[in-house]
Input
Amino acid sequence: MPPLAFRTAVTRGPPVFRRQPFRAPIPLPHLHGALSQPHSQTHHHHLTYKYKYPRVPPSNCTSRSPFSTYPSNPNPNKPKQAATMAAEKTAGWEKQIKRNPHPDFKQVEASRPPYDPSTRFTYTQTPDPHWQLGSGANTPPPPDKKHIAIDPHAASRPPGANYKLLISAVVPRPIAFLSTRSADGASTNLAPFSYFQLVGHDPPLFVVGFASPLAPEAGAKDSLRNLHATGECVINIISEEFVEAANSTSVNAPYGVSEWAVSGLTPVYDCQTVGCARVKEAVFAIEGRLESVREFESRATPGKVSTTLAVIEGTRFWAREDAVNEELNMLDLKVGFFSIFSSFFFLLPFFSFSVTD
Output
C-alpha cells in the first residue's frame, strides 16, 4: 500500500501552511495577511509557509469582548426557506447512501416508550469487583464464533460501508457542537461533528474530523471553511435539554445560511479569546484556536481529498455555575445530563442524521 498522502497546515501563533510538492498547491481561502518567508526547517520535503490573521474589526463592530473584533449581533435570521430546502436535499442524499437503518423513523420512534426526564447517570460496581491480575475476561467469548477480516478498500465494498461499520463499532463517541464565524463576521455557522475527541490537557488539545477537503471551491464544510479562515471556534458540549435543536443544525444548509436560526438556540458573544459565539444553552463550552489542519487523500478515489483533520487548542472553558465544583476541576453529569453518546442523534427524526456542516 502506498504511503498515506497528506498536506498539513500548522498554526502555532501565526498559522503555518505546509504542503508536499507532489501535488498542486491547495487553493487557500481568503486570508487577511501576507505570505512570509518559508520556515527554515523542512521535514520530508514539506514546504512551510506562515500566514497571519490580523484582527481588523469591521465597521459595524460592537463586540463586548475585548478580544473579539467581530460584530456582536450579526443577523442570524436568514430565510428559513433555504434551510428547509437544504433539509430536503439532505434527506434525499441520506436515502441514496442508505446510512439510516430506519426508513420511517417516526414510525419506529412511535413504537418506543416516552422520554423519561428522570433518567440520570448511575454509578455501579465493575462487572467483577473481585477480578485479579491474570484472570482474563469476565465472560469468555463464544468458542464457536470466529472473527471475520474486513478489507476497508475491497473492490466490491460499497462506499458507505466503512462509515456505517465504524460508527456502529466505535461507541460511545462524543459530539463537538462547533460554532464558527466567517473572516468578515458576516456569516455564522453551528454544526455537530461526531469525529471528535480530547487528545491532551497541557495544553488542552482536541481533534475534529471533517469529511471534506480544505478548499472552499472543492466543497469544504462550512465549519471547516470558517475555522481555517479565522483560526477560531467554540466547541459546545450537547446536553439533553437541547438535543433536538442541536440535531436540526446537521442540515446541509448553503454557506451564509445560519443554523442558529434553524435551531433557535441562543448565541452569546462574550468569549474572551475568540470572536465567535458560544451556545448559551450548553452547560460546558470551550473557546478554541486552530493549532493545525491536515488533509488526507481518499483510498477509494485516488487524487481526491476526502478527509481533513483539525487540531484545536482550548483557550478558555465556560462552565455553568451549578454544574462545576468549587475547585473548577469537575462537572456534575447530573446537571444537563451531557450527551456523550453519538447514538442520541441516530434516534432523532429530523434529517436521518447528517453531521455534515
The helical segments are 80-97, 105-110, 161-169, 222-230, 243-248, 259-263, 343-346. The chain has seven helices and twelve strands.
